[in-house]
Amino acid sequence: MKILHTGDWHLGKKLHETDFEEDHKFFFNSLYNIIIEENIEVLVVAGDIFDFSNPPKSAEKLYYEFLIRLKETSCKNIIITAGNHDGIQSIEAPKEILKLLNVEVIGSISEHPDNDLIEIKNDNGDLKFVVAAVPFLRDRDLLKINSGKTYSDRMTEVSQGIINHYKSIAEAVDNKYGKEVPALATGHLFASGVEENSDAVRDIQIGNLAGIAASSLPERFGYIALGHIHRQQRLKGHPNTWYCGSPLPLSFTERNYEHSILVTSLNEEGIFEQPEKISIPTYRKLITINDDLISVIDKLNELDTEENKNNLVEVIITQEKSDLDIPHKMSSISEELKHIKLVKYRTNFTGVSELRKEEIPDLDQFSPKLIFESLIKSQNIEEDQIPIIKDLFNKTEEILNQEDQQ
Questions:
Q1: CATH of region 286-349, choose from 3.30.1380, 2.60.40, 3.30.160, 1.20.1280
Q2: Which residue numbers delimit the Nuclease SbcCD subunit D C-terminal domain (predicted)?
């Protein structure tokens, strides 16, 4: 029995006002073809189906159309769990209707772990394995109400809460089915030791400081299908725990990732095989140009060919001195481009200017919040990330103030 593991689709995603709808259509066609060619029987989607908790109608349309297409394929078991980007209400609202398409949706954990166990049977109705469907575990599911806790206490409680939930659901599998029935678990979390530098991955569980070690996950699960980290990788410390990675580049930091899905098999001995990685072609490329202004303009003109149609470009102008004409020149070249699209540019001036002492601001005149907001403005941060970062700063400041008062 073949199981396809994917996730981090981020339907509805925009990159600097550029819509990714065509990218996702292209991906769904590729995914559909893989399901047909590989004779996939189980599809596991490990969170972040959508990019927003209230996705646009166009994104929902793509989602439902794809699930409907799968009804006539060999894939008769579809398990979808929510990620930190997904809204619980929006993803769970149609769950009863989706069951008619053999789709099980888990948006949040149940009061009793038994309710989050999904049986996978063959065409004869024989039980083959059980899926412990674990969505993104939100802080409110893991933290007990106690205003007197320190920041460190909260970190420990979140990490331990994640570990305890996996232990509880592993025990639920044993209690209900015994120790011989194979089990697969899902998850959408940050684990320590991962490789990731993507701008598109939002910090979860209080800034990712509550990351857990893979070795703390129960070995009862023969395969753990994870989402959240956009670079496909296996976690050290557990025999068969994998991040599937995102199937398409969602930020310029992901432009060199190898985007793929994972296919594992349950063999006759009831063991989940190490997964096969199947690369996913992408609709377009994301390209970064880092050079001085004159060279940047030359390279943009060289790239602007039919062969590079629809590719997105970011520019980093790196040179010693500032040039007041940069905004005008970049605006002009952007309008002239016919095939590629310049979506952002920033400058990096390497020359060191000597400031007179009276020009250096006195930091004592500024509050931590003003300094932090000034820092945000100086960094290359995605627009949709700024409110999240500010909210995290405010929560951190509030916690630190509480500790100072104790």
A1: 3.30.160
A2: 283-379
